[in-house]
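Appendix B, Record 12. Input sequence as logged:
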Amino acid sequence: MKVADGPALAGVDQAPEDVVRAISETLPDGLIAVDGEGILVFANLRAEQILQVRLGRSIGRPIREALPLWDSDGRPWWDVANPWAQLHTVKGHREKWLWTNDGVEVLATARYLRSAPRKPVERVVVAFRDAVARQRAERDHAALLSTLAHELRSPLTSVKGFSSTLLRRWDRFTDEQKRLIIETIEADADRVTRLVSDLLDVSRIEAGRMKVRRQEVFLDPLVAKHLRRLSSLGIPDDRIEVVVCRPIPDGWADPDRIDQIMINLIDNALTHGAGKITVRVEAGTVDMAGGAAGDPRPACVVSVADEGQGIPERVRSVIFTRFWHGPGQRNTGLGLYIVKALVEAHGGRVRAGNGPNGGAVFTFSIPVGDPTAGALGAVDPGSAHGRVQGHDHTLAGAADRPRV
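Logged structural output:
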């Protein structure tokens, strides 16, 4: 038998069974073969790894003894499936959850081979796939559904309660009380809207359809907008400090998406951080390292820092992944995932770390220049748009906030 040369077949005899075994060892799935009498005749190494059973020692034994498998109802699967007694039209079965005697969960797919139509089954080939990744994904989705139900129920309960109370007792409330109730309803409705928007954004990210509509933006008014939003939610003015290092280059970005990034990062600091939150806006480079990390294009760099416990180094590599949240925290785990996707859609970068005195610091960069005009990255790094000049201008408190 002639076969193509390759690393997988190096030193392998050209006998068909040797070739089949050599090729099977390169597959990511486990494979076993059972003959027409129900005797195990083949198992590759990957099958032993997935099933955690030494199958090589069981070649030649009845499959029911060599590899007992159980279905979700606790029945012996070889007896339930019984490939050798199936109708001639049955060619196999689709992927199915099975368990070994030791409780190892696997996904199994089988194919029944006959020498000719209507002939008895001569070979049963079963492919096994590790179920760990799917189990993790299903647990993540189950946890997400539970969290979403909680996140939606809380504001909807509030909206229902306040609106019902307002309708039944309208004449008993003063104008100030009515205003407070309506503002609470509006805030809860905004919370539901943000949650639904996050879910829609995740679907766009997963489908590769996330788009940004760039236009010239100025970060000062955007930051001031968020300060007013936080003040209207009852956040004390002295809780948030904004430091603007002028001059700030004119950015080209999607203002709605920049809004979304800022909302997620500031809300994250309010929820999981502590102490004063400092928002810093300055000129810099896309790699946020003066070009030393490989991308010297000029950019607007924004950081959001708090005075909490900070971010453990072991989780910094996974903190921007989908559904991730810290131990004991009940949230969707989508906010930072969306932040990363939106920043990268603009051609920027985002990172998480700790400040010199502790506390978490999230920093992102947005390239400057009009990309449609070929100006992206065309600004001289040594110009006023490429470096920080002048002094820090601090916005702290409502009286000092710039007008929009």
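Residues 215-400 form a domain with the Heat Shock Protein 90 fold (CATH 3.30.565.10).
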